[in-house]
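Need the bound structure for glutamine, inputs here:
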Amino acid sequence: MTPAGADPSGFPLPPGGRDLPRATAAALDHATEVDRRIHAFLHLDRDGATATARRLERQPPAARGPLFGLPVAVKDNIAVRGLPSTSGSALLGAYRAPYDATVVERLRGAGAVILGTTNLDEFGMGSATTSGFRGPTRNPADPERIVGGSSGGPAAAVASGAVPAALGTDTGGSVRLPAAHTGIFGIRPTYGRVSRFGITAYASSFDQVGCLAATPEALGRVLSVIAGADPRDATSVDREVPDFAAAAAHPAFPRTVVACSDEDLAILDSPSRRAFHRVLRRFEAGGSTIRRFQLPEAVTTISAYYVLACAEASSNLARFDGMRYGSRLDGDGTLAAAIRASRTAGFGDEVRLRILLGTTVLSQGYRDAIYAAATAARKAIRERLLGHFEQGEFLLIPVARTAPRRLSDPVEAGEDYDGDRFTILASLAGLPALAVPAGKRDGLPFGVELMAPPWEEAALLSAGAALAA
Ligand code: GLN
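Answer from helper R.:
Posting the output first, comments after.
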């Protein structure tokens, strides 16, 4: 029997041998217990996790993978063979994944124990984890508040201590925003770093699988396992995958950080602004030189992201018609009526709105004026952000404008789109970005985002670890 312990990076190792099924049962019990309060999980896979633990228990120590016995949660839009994969949509309420996503296959190969699938906004469209058909996830820091989204389930599963790490997807900030709202780490890797095979597509040129974890070491460990080229995703890139956990275990303040301007921070509520300034002082105390830069105009950034994301979504979601995928309603008996009835009953309001917006911007007459303009804006934003790295190693911005709102608070139209203004920058530019927990504002978790040049995730983890230490 191998006793529980810690590896040199301080990462807690689950027990080996005969203790593993017992530890897994305890993890499942704990997850069930916390989930009564926060509803992070859509499906807890007691049977599957128990079977995995029993199989792993027989592995000789030399054959154990780098995530041996680690309980993990997976966002429900990532295919886990045999489990429900609903993307938070009533339309897919009865769908089970017939295969594993590449990232799931890699988790299993490394010895992870998948405890279950977690909640999200419908098809990943949202910033609160309130729009899924099974109801909202609550913030473990304050269950009366939203958790952020759309990977709110994975974030809440980690922040509540149900799992040390989870997989999410990040199109425009879905990993980073709930990480910041719950006080944990969340990384969006460089576009192409991680395979998208087996992910329910929202906006393919933005979608990336990301990780959420309570420590940078755990984050790094999981990222090293899931990263790397995949012949089943032509946009995945064949580059060497560093030992990200080793990088995270070596905290280092950067020589220079380029932080957004005070003008860009004016949109923040004042406790958040003060918290951001405390982070600047922490970097200075750590020896970093702070330079400042001006963000691209918010209205351009937000419009470019929502035009392109909705355009891609309208095309990606065409397959959910009750014929190829999704529950079928028959309507008056014609094929067109069946498709209309299935989609009308299956999609929630936000998804429907975005499909309509996306279809409009791609239609003749609007394509050049709107879609092409958004593409040009995206390219300009990428070039501009890349240019700022001439002044320093990392760009530093807030993740959110405010603390997570109460679930009972009314939401104004466009409020959440506007709130995405910071996180969508890395998404538009294809840059890696890390949400780092940075203390509290008004008693609630506060996070900042570090962006790095493409492929510099290891440096991000090392800087993030220094800031959070
Ligand atoms: N809030 C953003 C949106 O709704 C980002 C969501 C995401 O990254 N999946 O598009």
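Comments: The chain is about 40% helix and 15% strand. The pocket of glutamine is lined by residues 124-127, 150, 170-174, 202, 309, 420 (CB under 6 Å).
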